[in-house]
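for the record, two folds in this file. i put them one after another cuz i was lazy. first one right below, seq on top, structure tokens after. the second one comes after a little note so u can tell where it starts
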Amino acid sequence: MAVNLEETVKQLTDFLKTEAKTETVIGQSFQLGEFTCMPVIKFGVGLGYGGGEGHGDMPNGKGKGEGGGSGAGGGVGVAPIGFLVTRGDQISFIPTRSSKGLGAAFEKVPDLLEKFLEKKNERKAEPVA
């Protein structure tokens, strides 16, 4: 069976372009009060291909041999890593990794954002001496 590696890679690349998006893996952006949250993913792909053929005498002198073979493999990894969060013209990144998992990060997002934005506004309001 002849394999057209170039065509196979093109088909795989086209598939990844359409399917390996945050929207199809994790979900669309969403509103959380006055915050807009956009999921961010880490995506990795690895591919390998090899083949060969051989002709000749068997090393033990018991006959002649001919053979061929090929193989291919791949792997894909997808993981949520955080959220880009906007409020007005301010943008922040909230990572999802915590000791309690993704659920704990979701619960903390509103409080963390509020504290972050309050401190940022306090710094702007302080006069420079």
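(here's the note) second protein begins now
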Amino acid sequence: MEIIGCDLHARQQTLAMLDTATGEVVKTTLQHEGSNVREFYSRLMRPVRVGIEATGSMQWFVNLMEELGIECLVGHPAEIRAAEPRKQKHDRRDADLLLSLLVEGRFPAIWLPTKELLDLRALLRHRHQWVRLRVKIQNALQAIALANGLRRGSSLWTPAGQQAIASLPLSPHAAYRRNELQAMYAKFETEIETLNQRVEQQAGERCAARLLMTHPGVGPITALATEVFLGDPSRFASSKELASYVGLIPGEHSSGKRQRLGGLTKQGNPLLRFLWSEAGIHAVRRDPELKHFYRRKLIQKGLGKARAAVARKLGIRMWIMLRDRIEYPEFCRRGQMQQRSGDACAGMPERRYGAKVTG
């Protein structure tokens, strides 16, 4: 068997290869030009196992390994770096480290989404980028309106508001900027509406997304994003692991009897955290339990921490609904049964909220 530690970059890759039959170790560097990479891996005797570190530009390589029938493991970057205590870092040492982790069975492989999920993620990210660009255009138009005494607030985006800002007497360059921004805003509105329809169509065709949309405050965008970014819900052993994966847990630097908690780690998908936070604000208006929970946290912790707590609680609820394949009414029924029996309440499966743990 050929075991290969591959330090992958955009233009080249450094390899450390071990032949388990002979014990020979070969080190080389491949340039990503033409068909060099395909020809090199095609000539290798099967079976072959390749380990790489997760990077943003790795998908083409993962697809190539799948096409050639080569086992490719993708490792967690932070855990790989933690396995090397030395301060020296360069491509050859990185490849040697990946090879040693593979040989010793300590390679921290991560879960990889399917091609279908990757395509849906691309749709959601594309829509989110266009929405952010539209917000920038709206802020620029609002600034122009306020600077010229036009105070319409959110009504500036109605047809009457757009007509009002278009009729403002401006100097030539300012008028040109205003006209271009209005044209871009109209274009973005049309494109975002098209993307919204595509997201709604995809969410309506997927059973898991339809389950999540039964929860108050959860729309097709949040439901589809939760399904495609979480993937298989059974890979999370508990709600704490889910919150850690998304980055909705506080950072901690404790020692001895002193506990120091910081802000959210945010070591997860930023789009999913944003959507859960936005959906949480809508959910507290429609779900009595979430509303009570939000108001209590608002008094205890303040606005920011209360919103983060609601986002986490809503995300855990959706994870439970995905894991158990249940709709919102069934979720509430199970929560009420658990509360009556003294077990964990809905959304907090570890233990009942407010119950004291005695040792």
